[in-house]
Amino acid sequence: MSAPVAAAGVDDETERPDACVPRTTAGRTAWTAALVFLLCGMAHAPRHWGGAHPLALLVPGLCLLVAFALTIPAVRTAAAAAGLVGAAVLAAGPVLDARFGHRSGGFGAGLRRLSAVLDDAPVAPWTAGAVAAAAALAALAVLVVVLAGRRRAGRAPAQPTETGRSTR
Fold first, then answer.
1. Which of 19, 111, 136, 138 could form an SS bridge with 88, CB 3.0 to 4.6 Å?
2. 108-118 pLDDT, tens per residue?
3. Which DSSP string do the residues of 49-81 spell out, in sequence order?
């Protein structure tokens, strides 16, 4: 015998559950942040892969790794924390390079080196910085939602107070 056919327009979740669709707020926020991190990786990828500096290949690879890790609930918090730090460094790089880049040593030299490595990106530096800032904010949103959800799950539901009156 064949299985019963569902009526037209009725979605039967028990027949074919869709595992790719996030069902919680934390899941939806993490998938949105993953998309932003994919954009960040594409914005920082070098235009020409041949002869590119290893750091220029590492930055988009790490963005893509964070994007993938955000979709896994077991490592979502750690991925969001790492993504927050990494994206904040990428976002602050162009701004701090304009401020401290003229100095010959120390912090300014490191920023100049990072900016020179990421200059082969397919978008303007300020666009890549803006995408990185959006990724940092998305990672922060994931952290807030996940940690708030854990706090709420750890708290017992409020018990109704006994007033002595009947509810009927």
1. 136
2. 566 666 667 77
3. -TT--HHHHHHHHHHHHHHHHHT-GGGHHHHHH
